[in-house]
Design goal:
The protein has about 160 residues and is an all-alpha fold. The chain is built from seven helices and no strands.
Length: about 160
Amino acid sequence: MTPEVTELAGVTADRARLDERELELIDRARHAGATWVQIAAALGLGSRQAAEQRRQRLAVVRRSRRHERDLGYSARIAAIRGAVSDLQRWIDTDRRWDARFGRATLVRKTAEAALDADPSPLYALATLLAVDLRQADGERLPAPVRAIAARLDDLLSTKP
């Protein structure tokens, strides 16, 4: 392999690190109260929509990398991440989610963290999600969310 090809491989790794750092900084800025317009200006983008789209692209790339890494683990890890992803999609479309039950906001934030977690923390966070959803049972959880909770319970079960 030529030195140039070796350096190209390094660029790919550098890009992944920079993408992770950019996503982290965008999220930290948003949590600290920065507007999308401010973030767009800091990134040299022309609009708030461009900044939001950039964040979405970075999040998709991160999830894709996580999926690739998950392939090196058991199929159960990919299935758990899939269930958490289904839960997150439901939460994202439910405008009343945070008012559904006492720990709904915690469930939303835990699901967000679990989506990007490495396998061991993913398993731990999914366990917490399952417990919180189980405790909310009967407290106005939509049927699809109850089905996801049951799926998580099955995936996390240690029964053969």
